[in-house]
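dumping this here so i dont lose it again. seq + smiles for magnesium ion
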Amino acid sequence: MSTIQAVVFDLDDTLYPERAFAFSGFDTVVERFGQRLGWGSAEAARMRTLFDSEQSATVFNAVLEESGVEPETHATLIAEMVATYRQHAPRIALHADADRALARLHGRYRLGIVSDGFLGTQQAKIEALGLAARIDLVVLTDQWGRDHWKPDPKGFAHLASEFRVPHASCIYVADNPAKDFLAPNRLGWRTVQIRRSDGIYAGLVAPSGGKPQAVIDTLDNVDACLLG
Ligand SMILES: [Mg+2]
């Protein structure tokens, strides 16, 4: 096997808990719309509960319905709430083991990120987490449009090319077997799943060719995957 030269991470639920972003977004929505709708901490708590339920994709709709807000206003309000959520400056922090891994690997490997998601939202997360100073190259696939989100290979190919390292010397560390490993596997990268007990996507099934080559449960153990 080739020597690993580039260690590339996914962002959401790999380096920081995605639930924390969602909760930060709900709090911001309640702060912004609370006065107008009579919402407060009860609605914020309800959003958190809904996020952990099967209604996670329709949190604002559900709370609007439950709180008796005029149905005619829902569509406009939901659009405004979604925009607020996506554009807010999140109050989030790195997982402790991610913080330690970045400190340990810095200077020994080229460090990268390949992340999907709305461009402005992902940029705000990178900013909030202070990652620009700790990662050599952050690749946000939405810069090329949604067609290039994973499992499209463009982000991975771009990163290897910018780093001028062969694909076989790259490793991708990510949480979501449904979409994260297909492209890097095909390109010849090494792939590792970080399976966190509170991860939103940890239980999803990998498509054919999309299984990670190794699984770890903390980034404290990632170093062993880089050897050989
Ligand atoms: Mg992820």
